[in-house]
Amino acid sequence: MKKFKRVDKLFSLCGLNCSLCPSFVRGNCQGCQQGSHCALMCPFVPCSIEHGDIAYCFECEEYPCNHYDGVDKKDSLISHLNQFKDMQKAKSIGIDEYHKEQLLKIDILNEFLEKYDNGHRDVFFCLAVNLMDVDDLNIVLNQASKLRGNDKSDVVKQMLIDSASKRGIVLKLRKGDWW
Prior knowledge:
- The protein is an all-alpha fold.
- The protein has eight helices and no strands.
- It is elongated and about 55 Å long.
């Protein structure tokens, strides 16, 4: 049997932003890689192998296939809400351009984690950075930099919730089975 091959550690085969997943950020996951927990449970991995080791599902002539049915209805440790939308964006603008935005988001996430994480906000910050636009995130960071006091974590969390809600984004993971 052929082994699953994966080069891109930022963006998964199916459209998840692996680099913005709390497990990846903590160093507990290598993303969509051979032998990883995600790859072992993923229905997209055998499909990729079957279709010639495609790097992204949008490269397949059958994309979008039935594997995407309901994919955006429930979450794992990372939001699946924008999975199909992000895949479409990567296909549209090209993976290199998509990676540029991801790298900006990684920098933003690292700033939130370094300056405003009180020890248990990593999942929340990963969710916010994954779902929100770079411009909105930068506005919140700019406002947060003006805060005074020791514990800014709760205030920054509320700032992100308020900013996201203006765009109709709910910053909460949806529970349930994810495959």
